[in-house]
Amino acid sequence: MRSAYKFRLYPTEDQAKRLEEILETCRQLYNWALEDRKNAYSNEKISRTYKDQATMLVVEKKRGNFAGVHSQVLQDVLRRVDRAFQNFFRRVKSGEKPGYPRFKGRGWYKSFTYPQSGFRLDGSKLILSRIGAIRIFKHREIEGKIKTCTIKRDSTGAWYAIFSTDTEEEPPKVEPETAIGVDVGIKNAVTLSTGETFSYPRYLVRMEKKLAAAQRCLSRKIKGSKNWIKQKLKVAKIHKKIRNLRNEFLHQISKKIVDKADLIVFENLNIKSMVRNHSLAKHILDHSWGRLIQYTTYKAARAGKSVELVDSRYTSQRCSGCGIIVPKTLEDRVHECPRCGIKLDRDHNAALNILTLGLRGSACGEAATEVAAASTLVEAYWITGSMKPSTSSKGFDGSRYNREASTKSKRRKPFPFRGREEVTLSPDNIQCCQRSRTMGDLKTASAVQYVPLQDPLPAV
User: Fold this and answer.
1) Fewer CB within 10 Å, N or C, the chain?
2) Is 267 tagged catalytic?
């Protein structure tokens, strides 16, 4: 299992200057490698590879270029260029926006990596090749074998060491006994299927005036002047404070969620499309839903627990009690079902629906898609009377349902059952059971409605 540990570095003035020089050398090498690839293809129609440029790097070092930097650090720079082109070609093939690799200007190259050797931890010191021993604040022990060491400078000039580790033994997988659904939002950052909510302090909104004043002051400075550099640092520190507070909140909430259940279910949100709504984009990005899911996922993996993503369509509109669609706008904060009479907060209702979808996937496995399709069809109708499956010589294939009512028989749309599972619909639950050959034992009650799956895992 791969993990990463990030620690703060406190270099001396001379060491910081040396780190800056290495960053500048790596930036120049990156731009040199990018320019070489462009010229080789435009002039000679040759596609450079990493091996080609690694051989050229040896020649350049013999000439005295890129001196004073560990050889593996320089090789890692060439690998970054190679990955940039590989990602570019991948995006072209998939039809995405290509995004051709760009040259790195001053201040835009912020890290370098020791991939195998050239670094060593010695107590509270990090010994780096060609630099020396730098004081490090190691606030926790590192588990596993250290594979790489990345030295990074942030926008405020602070230095960090990031260690990538690998542990041979995977954490033991926990057999799910409890499950919880999580709905993310703006009014409440997190709403659980238990009804518990966590409100986000909205750090960006709190510090918005201070940030705007600092940015206005920066815009009045002459770009590149000493006062402009000082004011730019002030703006960066405000952004860093907001980011640190947000990350602390997300770490705390994700830890609480992981501690509450063995199976955690989130919506699979398309956040990139959601931020196109300019009225909500600032708040959506400030809440960092994607990062919350990311933090919860890796914490659950370390604990041997599971995180599932389910389809986000109609989780807020569907009633968690009977399953009918109750249309709402963003202004409607309370869910009131005209069919079953249930009344609860819309986020709580959505969390219950998310939990139901997650439990179906957990219980049915391959039949989860079939159950979801069946429930979507059932929820569109309020079926009264008794329904009996139509059978044929080839067995029941779900092609027709006959409805016996007191007035007249009415033909219904086909149920989309295909595969090895059958679904028994009742007022109490939807159960997945092994399909019989004729499915003649499929029984339904006189009044059938959509209700959530009876939890195979006890919901917390």
Assistant:
1) N
2) yes
Number of alpha carbons in the 13 Å side-chain half-sphere of residue 240 = 12
Among 183, 262, 379, 421, which one carries the catalytic annotation?
183
Q: Tokens for 111?
A: 């890290």
Cα-Cα-Cα-Cα dihedral of 369, 371, 373, 377, to 10°? Answer: 180
**Annotated catalytic residue, options 76, 82, 262, 267:** 267
* Residue 345 falls in the annotated catalytic set: no
Q: What is the pLDDT of residues 268-302, one digit of tens each?
A: 999 988 998 888 999 999 999 999 999 999 999 99
Question: How many CA atoms, within 13 angstroms, populate the side-chain half-sphere of residue 242?
Answer: 20
How far apart CA 161 and CA 6 sit, in angstroms, is: 6
Q: Which residue is catalytic, options 347, 370, 421, 422?
A: 347
For residue 7, pLDDT beyond 50? yes
Q: Is 397 a catalytic residue?
A: no
Residue type, position 239, single letter: H
Residue given tokens 């960092």 in the structure block: 288
Q: Give the type of residue at 118.
A: G
The mean pLDDT of 434-458, rounded to a whole number, is 34
Cβ–Cβ under 8 Å, residues 138 and 161: no
Q: How far apart are CA 140 and CA 432, in angstroms?
A: 46
**Dist. CA 417–CA 397, nearest whole Å:** 7
Amino acid at 316: S
Strand partners, 451: none
Domain ranges for the chain: 2-166, 179-311, 350-448
Global pTM exceeds 0.70: yes
In whole angstroms, what is the distance from residue 203 CA to residue 210 CA? Answer: 12
From the list 195, 196, 143, 189, the residue with the least C-alpha distance to 295 is 189
Report how far residue 102's alpha carbon sits from residue 192's, in angstroms, rounded to the nearest whole number: 43
Residue with tokens 């039949």: 367
Distances (CA, A) of 151 to 78, 103, 131, 253, 292: 17, 21, 12, 29, 25
Cα-Cα-Cα-Cα dihedral of 431, 433, 438, 439, to 10°? Answer: -10
What type of residue is 284?
A: I
Segment holding 190, helix H or strand E:
strand 190-192
> CA of 7: how far to CAs of 10, 83, 107, 126, 140, in Å?
10, 26, 22, 10, 9
38-84 pLDDT, tens per residue? 999 999 899 999 999 999 999 999 998 888 899 999 999 999 999 99
